[in-house]
């Protein structure tokens, strides 16, 4: 049976649209996790920590309190000193004690956690884009539907790994800053929640797409009688 005809007769374009919609939503959530959002929507993703330091006032007559901050996301790291902000697009963000005007006895920058493991978020986003595209085009290009069946379970595993990676890095940064000199107060974003929501969607979609594959008609071998007759005819020749 032609795969387009199979989707039209056995699956229905309504189910196809629903599955495509869930795949697109999963891709959007993965994209939110991967793109830099600390500067635009800091509460959406990553972890942000703030502290207050005392510096001599410009007139030299006293001390001024300045709020400083450090933020780490899946693809960037940011620092705030008052109203001044500095961001770097990197997987291995390391804060600068000079920019933050940290005291000499600071230990914020000592052994600051590396975020290289967050590269899995970008791999997951790329896989999700491939799965979404291959399924949406799959009814018209049979080989792409097969690619969807192969990639979707891999994407589920990578999404789970991404969510765990976000939790690990956020916990490491929070621990480092919570017990540092000076002490920081941290705020977590919702990116790791998004990652596990994506996993939930993808597990359901994996079973759904797998059921569709099981319903597809398989090519049947010719009957045994026809095969034996064919062999007898060839032997007589």
Architecture blueprint of SSEs:
Elements: H1 3-11, H2 13-34, E1 47-56, E2 63-72, E3 77-81, E4 84-88, H3 97-100, H4 119-137, H5 142-178, E5 185-188, H6 191-215, H7 224-236
Antiparallel strand pairs: 1-2, 1-5, 2-3, 3-4
Helix pairs in contact: 2-4, 2-6, 4-5, 5-6
Q: How does this structure look, described?
A:
- The protein is built from seven helices and five strands; from the N terminus they run H-H-E-E-E-E-H-H-H-E-H-H.
- The protein is elongated.
- Helix 2 packs antiparallel against helix 6.
- The protein has a five-stranded antiparallel sheet with strand order 4-3-2-1-5, covered by helices on one side.
- The longest helix is centred in the C-terminal third of the chain and has 37 residues, at 142-178.
- It has one domain.
- With 237 residues, the protein is α+β, with helices and mostly antiparallel strands.
- Keywords: Membrane, Transmembrane, Transmembrane helix.
What's this, in brief?
This protein has 237 residues and is of the alpha+beta class. The chain is built from 7 helices and 5 strands, in the order H-H-E-E-E-E-H-H-H-E-H-H. It has one domain (3-215).
Strand content: 5-15%
Cα gyration radius (Å): 27 Å
Share of residues in helices:
40-55%
Can you give the mean pLDDT? 82
How would a textbook summarize the main sheet?
5 strands, antiparallel
Count of folded domains: 1
The string of secondary-structure elements, in order, is HHEEEEHHHEHH
Q: Based on helices, strands and strand pairing, what is the structural class?
A: alpha+beta
Output the number of helix runs: 7
What is the 3D form? elongated
Residue ranges: pLDDT <50 for 5 or more in a row? 220-224
Q: What is the terminal-to-terminal distance?
A: 35 Å
Number of strands: 5
Question: Taking strands numbered 1, 2, ... along the chain, how are they ordered across the largest sheet?
Answer: 4-3-2-1-5
Keywords: Membrane, Transmembrane, Transmembrane helix
């Amino acid at each position: 049976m032609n795969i387009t005809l199979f989707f039209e007769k056995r699956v229905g374009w309504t189910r196809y649209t629903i599955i495509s919609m869930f795949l697109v939503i999963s891709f959007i959530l993965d994209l939110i996790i991967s793109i830099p959002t600390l500067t635009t929507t800091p509460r959406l993703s990553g972890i942000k920590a703030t502290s207050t330091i005392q510096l001599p006032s410009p007139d030299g007559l006293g001390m001024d309190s300045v709020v400083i901050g450090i933020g780490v996301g899946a693809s960037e790291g940011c620092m705030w000193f008052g109203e001044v902000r500095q961001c770097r697009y990197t997987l291995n963000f390391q804060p600068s004690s000079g920019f933050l005007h940290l005291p000499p006895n600071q230990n914020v920058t000592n052994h600051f956690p590396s975020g290289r493991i967050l590269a899995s978020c970008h791999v997951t986003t790329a896989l999700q884009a491939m799965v979404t595209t291959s399924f949406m085009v799959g009814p018209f290009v049979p080989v792409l539907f097969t690619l969807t069946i192969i990639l979707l379970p891999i994407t589920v595993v990578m999404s789970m790994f991404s969510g765990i990676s976000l939790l690990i890095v956020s916990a490491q940064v929070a621990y480092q800053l919570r017990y540092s000199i000076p002490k920081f107060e941290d705020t977590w974003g919702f990116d790791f929640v998004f990652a596990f929501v994506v996993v939930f969607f993808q597990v359901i979609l994996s079973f759904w797409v797998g059921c569709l594959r099981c319903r597809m008609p398989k090519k049947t071998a010719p009957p045994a009688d026809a095969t034996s007759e064919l062999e007898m005819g060839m032997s007589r020749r």
